Amino acid sequence: MSIVINVENIKCGGCANSIKQKMNALPGVVETMVDVDAGSVAIKFDTEVDQQQVLTTVKDKLLAMGYPTVGSVEGLKAAGAKAKSFVSCAVGKMTDSE
Questions:
Q1: Burial, 82: exposed, middle or buried (Cβ in 10 Å; 0-12, 13-18, 19+)?
Q2: Residue 14 burial by Cβ neighbours in a 10 Å radius (0-12, 13-18, 19+)
Q3: 21-38 burial: b if 16+ Cβ within 10 Å, else e
Q4: Domains along the chain?
Q5: How far apart are CA 5 and CA 68, in angstroms?
Q6: Which residues make beta-bridge pairs with 45?
Q7: pLDDT of res. 96
Q8: How far apart are CA 19 and CA 32, in angstroms?
Q9: Dihedral sign for Cα atoms in the order 64, 44, 7, 86
Q10: Alpha carbon 11 to chain centroid distance?
Q11: Class of residue 98 by CB neighbours under 10 A (exposed 0-12, middle 13-18, buried 19+)
Q12: How far apart are CA 85 and CA 68, in angstroms?
């Protein structure tokens, strides 16, 4: 099974690279695809896991990285998420260039 999550703050391939690395490292995630233009993350789940639990973990991890689901944060939390996303983006760019 797979699901598409619309997230905020995806700006470039560096963001996409960071998201793919972190999501693919989570137990129960088989594959991650990021569409920068659409601002979406597609997650393919292992069929042997509690997919709802993995989805919650995925959303929590995306938020921690600065990529909250669309409309889930406001005000100062949104500004904090945006700042975190710049760091995640930079890390993704550095990792991509290695």
A1: middle
A2: buried
A3: ebbeeeebbeebebeeee
A4: 2-97 (3.30.70.100)
A5: 10
A6: 29
A7: 57
A8: 8
A9: positive
A10: 12
A11: exposed
A12: 9
pLDDT tens for the chain, 98 residues: list them.
889 999 999 988 888 999 999 999 999 999 999 999 999 999 999 888 888 999 999 999 999 898 999 888 666 677 777 777 767 767 766 665 44
Ramachandran sector of residue 42 (left: φ over 0; alpha: ψ -120 to 50; beta: rest): beta
Identify the pLDDT of residue 85.
74
Tokens representing 8 are: 């905020």
pLDDT at residue number 7 = 94
Name the token pair of 31. Answer: 């594959």
pLDDT confidence of residue 76: 64
